[in-house]
Design a protein that fits this description.
The complex is a heterodimer of chains A (about 425) and B (about 90).
Chain A (H helix, E strand, L loop, with lengths): L5 H8 L18 E7 L3 H14 L4 E4 L15 E2 L6 H15 L1 H5 L10 E5 L2 H16 L5 E4 H7 L15 E5 L3 E2 L2 H14 L3 E3 L4 E7 L2 E7 L3 E10 L5 H8 L6 E12 L7 E4 L4 E5 L4 E8 L11 H14 L8 E11 L6 E4 L5 E5 L9 H14 L13 H4 L6 H4 L4
Parallel strand pairs in A: 1-2, 1-11, 2-8, 4-13, 11-18
Antiparallel strand pairs in A: 3-7, 4-6, 5-6, 9-10, 10-11, 12-15, 12-16, 13-14, 14-15, 17-18
Helix pairs in contact in A: 2-7, 2-10, 3-10
Chain B lengths: L2 E4 L4 E4 L4 E5 L13 H9 L7 E7 L7 E7 L5 E5 L10
Antiparallel strand pairs in B: 1-2, 3-4, 4-5, 5-6
The chains are: A alpha/beta (about 425), B mainly beta (about 90).
Protein name (chain B): Sarcosine oxidase subunit delta
Organism (chain B): Marinomonas ostreistagni
Pfam family, one (chain B): SoxD
C-alpha cells in the first residue's frame, strides 16, 4: 500500500492524478475469521484497525450493510472534546482525545483534526455551578479546562450575544482549548485504509441478518449475500440499530433509538473559529473549513428509525442559534438530515460482554459517539483480542443497569435526552 | 410533524402537544422488595426498541394531560391504532 506524502502528491501530479491506488480492496469473505465486526462505521473500522495494529489479529472482517462510514459517522457534527464529569467517562474520552492528537500521523491520512477549542455556555447560576464543578473535576483528571466569565467568552467569540438583552444572557462558559473538530468522513476512510492494508477484509453491501449461536456461544453470523461466516468472536458496533441486533441474539439492551438532527448553512466567509455549545438554550454550532455553519439539535422525543427529524426540533434549534448569534438570522440553511442514535438511560455508552458468550457489543454512544471514535475502537479492540474487557471499558458494562453502578453524564453529554 | 388522535379529547392534534413516554405495557413488579437486581434492572431500564411496530405510552401534555397507548411503526411513523390505558393492542404484526 502506498504511503501518502507531499512528495507523492507532487509525483502523481505529473500523471494528472490518474494512477493513485484504490484506497482499499473489495474482497470476497473467507469462510472463517478470528473476529467479525458487525458495522463499518467509524467505531467498527477503528476497532478493526487497532485489532490489526496493536494486537496483530489480522484475520478480521468488517461487515457493513451499506457503505463504509455511511451511517452516523457521516451524519454527526464532528465535535471532539473530553470534558466529561465522572472519572470513568473522563478517562475514556481523554483516552480518545490523546489518540486524536496523533491520529493523522498514525494513520498516514489527514483527518483534519483542528483543536480550535470548545465553549459550553452557562446561562443560569446553576449552569455556572455545574460548569465550576465539571471543570474542577476535569482538571483533577488531567484534562484541560477553564471557567470563563461572559466578558472572556465574548473576547473569544465576538459575534456571540453576551449582552444582558438576550432572553437567556450568557453568564460564562467552560472552555476546553484542546477540543475541536475533525473531518468525519476522513476518520472512517483513514481507519478503513489502515485496517485494509494490514489485511482486514472490509465487506460492504452485506447485511448480517442473524447470529449463529450454539449452546449460548456465538460461532458466526448469517449474511444476506455470502451465507454463513464463522468467527471465534463477534463484535457488534451498529449504533442506532443495536437494539435490533440484540433482539436477533435473543436479549434486550437498555437502549432507545431516537432520531437526532443536524443541519448546515450555505458556505459563508470565516466567522466562527471555535465550537460553541449551549445546553440551556439548546443548540450548538461550529464552522467547517468549507465555510458552512454546522448546527446540531436535540433528539426527537419518540423512538424512531426514520433517519429524518421532526420540524419542531429544527425550529427550536434555529431559535436557539439565532438567540445566541443574532448575526446568523439571515443565513440560509442548505441541508438538514437525521441519524439514529441509541441513547442510554445514563447518557454513557455500553462497551460490554453480553449474555451470549464471545459476542460483544459496543453501542449506546447516543448523541456523542464521534468524539470517542479512536478511543472506543482502541479499547474495544483490546477487549476483543483478549476476550475480556479493557480496564477503561469495564465500568461501561451493560450489567451496570443491574447492579446500579450508573455513570450519570447527562450534564456533560450536551444534548437533551 | 404528524398528527395524533387523543382518545380522551376525541380529536387529532399536532405532535408537539404530546409527550412520548416510551414502551407501553411495562408492569411494575408487585413486590419490588423481593425482586432480584436483575429483575429490577430489567423493569427499570431494558427495552424492546424495535424497528417496526411499537406499543408505546403517550401523554397529551399540552391538552387534557391524560395518558393513552399508541401502536406506531418506528420507521414509517405511521400510527396503526390508539387505545386507552388498560386495553390491549389489536394490531400486533
Amino acid at each position: 500500500m502506498q504511503q501518502y506524502s507531499g512528495f507523492g502528491l507532487l509525483k502523481h501530479s505529473l500523471s494528472h492524478h490518474e494512477n493513485w491506488q484504490r484506497v482499499w480492496r473489495n474482497p470476497t469473505p473467507k469462510k472463517k475469521y478470528d473476529v467479525i465486526i458487525v458495522g463499518g462505521g467509524g467505531h467498527g473500522l477503528a476497532t478493526a484497525y487497532y485489532l490489526a495494529k496493536e494486537h496483530n489479529i489480522t484475520n478480521v472482517a468488517v461487515i457493513e450493510k451499506g457503505y463504509l462510514g455511511g451511517g452516523n459517522t457521516a451524519r454527526n457534527t464532528t465535535i471532539v472534546r473530553s470534558n466529561y464529569l465522572w472519572d470513568e467517562a473522563a478517562h475514556l474520552y481523554e483516552h480518545a482525545m490523546k489518540l486524536w492528537e496523533g491520529l493523522s500521523q498514525d494513520l498516514n491520512y489527514n483527518v483534519m483534526f483542528s483543536q480550535r477549542g470548545c465553549l459550553n455556555l452557562g446561562h443560569t447560576l446553576q449552569d455556572m455551578r455545574d460548569i465550576e464543578r465539571r471543570v474542577n473535576a476535569n482538571r483533577l483528571n488531567g484534562i484541560d479546562g477553564e471557567v470563563l466569565d461572559a466578558k472572556q467568552v465574548n473576547e473569544i467569540v465576538p459575534i456571540l450575544d453576551c449582552s444582558s438583552n438576550a432572553r437567556y444572557p450568557v453568564m460564562g462558559a467552560s472552555w476546553q482549548p484542546r477540543a475541536g473538530v475533525a473531518r468525519h468522513d476522513a476518520v472512517a476512510w483513514g481507519f478503513a485504509r489502515g485496517a485494509d492494508m494490514r489485511g482486514v477484509d472490509l465487506i460492504q453491501q452485506t447485511e448480517v441478518v442473524d447470529f449463529i449461536i450454539e449452546d449460548g456461544t456465538v460461532v458466526g453470523v448469517k449474511t444476506d449475500r455470502y451465507g454463513d461466516i464463522k468467527a471465534d468472536r463477534v463484535g457488534c458496533v451498529t449504533a442506532g440499530h443495536s437494539g435490533v441486533m440484540a433482539a436477533k441474539a435473543g436479549f434486550e439492551l437498555p437502549l432507545e433509538s431516537h432520531p437526532l438532527q443536524a443541519l448546515v448553512s450555505e458556505p459563508i466567509k470565516p466567522i466562527l473559529d471555535t465550537v460553541v455549545m449551549s445546553n440551556h438554550v439548546h443548540g450548538y454550532a461550529s464552522q467547517s473549513d468549507k465555510g458552512d455553519l454546522v448546527i446540531g439539535a436535540g433528539i426527537d422525543g419518540y423512538t424512531g428509525y426514520g433517519q429524518r427529524g421532526s420540524y419542531s426540533t429544527i425550529e427550536h434549534t434555529i431559535q436557539a442559534i439565532v438567540e445566541m448569534f443574532p448575526i446568523f438570522s439571515r443565513v440560509r440553511m442548505n441541508r438538514q438530515w437525521g441519524g439514529i442514535v441509541d441513547t442510554c438511560p445514563d447518557a454513557c455508552p455500553i462497551i460490554s460482554e453480553t449474555p451470549v458468550k464471545n459476542l460483544f457489543f459496543n453501542c449506546g454512544w447516543g448523541t456523542g459517539g464521534f468524539k470517542a471514535t479512536p478511543g472506543s475502537g482502541n479499547v474495544f479492540a483490546a477487549s476483543l483480542a483478549k476476550g475480556e474487557m479493557h480496564e477503561l471499558a469495564k465500568p461501561f458494562s451493560m450489567f451496570r443497569f443491574h447492579n446500579g453502578a450508573l455513570i450519570d453524564e447527562h450534564g456533560a453529554a450536551g444534548v437533551a435526552h | 410533524m404528524f398528527l395524533i388522535y387523543c382518545p380522551h379529547c376525541g380529536e387529532h392534534r399536532e405532535e408537539e402537544e404530546f409527550h412520548n413516554h416510551g414502551q407501553a405495557h411495562i408492569a411494575r413488579p408487585l413486590d419490588p422488595d423481593s425482586c432480584t437486581d436483575e429483575e429490577w434492572g430489567n423493569y427499570m431500564f431494558f427495552r424492546k426498541n424495535p424497528k417496526g411496530l411499537h406499543h408505546e405510552l403517550w401523554v397529551h401534555a399540552a391538552g387534557c394531560r391524560k395518558f393513552f397507548n399508541v401502536t406506531r411503526h418506528t420507521a414509517t411513523y405511521e400510527i396503526k391504532e390508539v387505545y386507552k390505558i388498560g386495553e390491549q393492542p389489536k394490531v400486533v404484526e
